[in-house]
Specification:
By secondary structure, the protein is an alpha/beta fold. It has one domain: P-loop containing nucleotide triphosphate hydrolases (Rossmann fold). The protein is 29% helix and 16% strand. It is built from 8 helices and 8 strands; from the N terminus they run αβαβααββααβαβαββ. β6, α8 and β7 form a beta-alpha-beta unit. α1 packs across α2.
C-alpha cells in the first residue's frame, strides 16, 4: 500500500483508498466534473487546471493537492505544479524538497529538465516552487514558462496548478490564459461576496475560463445540506458563474 502524504499546515489529504470518506468522495465528484467539462487538447496534450482563491487561507492548496491525488488514482498521469511562488506549501504537504523547482528552471543560465518529483501516490508527480525570487510575475508570465508548460502537457494527461490568491497578487493574471480551466476556492462564511465577484470579473476580463466555484470549510450547523458523516473539513463544490448572497450568508 502506498504511503499517504502527511498532513502539514492545514493541508488535509483525503484517504484516497476509502469508499466512505466524504472528503475523498467530494474530490472524486470534482474529478468527474472536470473530465466531462474540459475538452481534451489536440495532439495528445494534457489539460491544465488552475486552482486559485480570492484571498488567503481559503483552502486552495488543499483542493489542488486532493484533486491531483484523485486524478492520479484514476490512472490519469498527473502533475501537480506549485506556482504560488511567494508562499509555496505543496512541498511541505508531501514532504519533498522545495527546490529545485519552477524558479530554478526559469532562472537557470543553462537548460535543465523539469525537476519533477515522483510521489508514493501512483501516477502523481510534483513540480515544486523552487528557490525564492522577488520576480514572480515576470517569471510566470515569461515565454520560457509557457514553453515549459507546453512540453509538460505532452508528458502528462492532467496538470493541476496551485496559484496565489487572485485577489491578493498579480501573478494569477499572467497564468489565466496559459491554462484550460480555472476553479476559485471560496471559504464558507469568510469570503465576502463582492470580493469573489470582483475576482471572477477580473479573471474573465483577462480571458480566463472559470469552470466553477469550490466552497470550502462548510459549517455543519449552518450548512447542513453540504455536510456528511460529521467530517469537519468537508469540501463541497458547486458550479455557477457567481455565488449568490444567500449562498454566502454572513459574508
Amino acid at each position: 500500500m502506498p504511503a499517504q502524504p502527511r498532513k502539514y499546515r492545514k493541508i488535509f489529504l483525503a484517504d484516497y483508498e476509502s469508499t466512505t470518506d466524504p472528503l475523498a468522495e467530494a474530490f472524486r465528484m470534482l474529478r468527474l466534473q472536470i473530465q466531462t467539462s474540459v475538452q481534451p487538447n489536440s495532439g495528445e496534450k494534457g489539460n491544465i487546471i488552475l486552482i486559485t482563491s480570492a484571498i488567503e487561507q481559503e483552502g486552495k492548496t488543499t483542493v489542488a493537492c486532493n484533486l491531483a491525488q484523485m486524478c492520479a488514482i484514476a490512472h490519469i498521469k498527473t502533475l501537480l505544479i506549485d506556482t504560488d511562488l511567494r508562499k509555496p506549501s505543496i512541498h511541505l504537504g508531501f514532504d519533498i524538497p522545495r527546490k529545485p523547482g519552477v524558479t530554478d528552471i526559469l532562472l537557470s543560465d543553462n537548460q535543465m529538465p523539469a525537476p519533477v518529483v515522483k510521489t508514493l501516490v501512483p501516477n502523481l508527480s510534483i513540480l515544486p516552487a523552487g528557490k525564492f525570487t522577488r520576480h514572480t510575475t515576470e517569471i510566470l508570465g515569461s515565454p520560457l514558462f509557457s514553453a515549459m508548460l507546453e512540453h509538460l502537457k505532452t508528458e502528462y494527461d492532467m496538470i493541476v496548478m496551485d496559484s496565489p490568491p487572485a485577489g491578493v497578487v498579480s501573478d494569477v493574471g499572467v497564468l489565466v490564459r496559459k491554462v484550460d480551466a480555472i476553479y476559485i476556492v471560496v471559504r464558507a462564511g469568510m469570503t465576502k461576496v463582492r470580493t469573489v465577484r470582483q475576482v471572477v470579473r477580473t479573471i474573465k476580463d483577462l480571458g480566463g475560463d472559470i469552470l466553477g466555484i469550490i466552497l470550502s470549510r462548510i459549517n455543519p450547523k449552518r450548512d447542513r445540506y453540504y455536510y456528511y458523516h460529521n467530517y469537519p473539513h468537508y469540501y463541497s463544490s458547486y458550479y455557477k458563474d457567481e455565488p449568490s448572497e444567500s449562498e454566502q450568508h454572513g459574508s
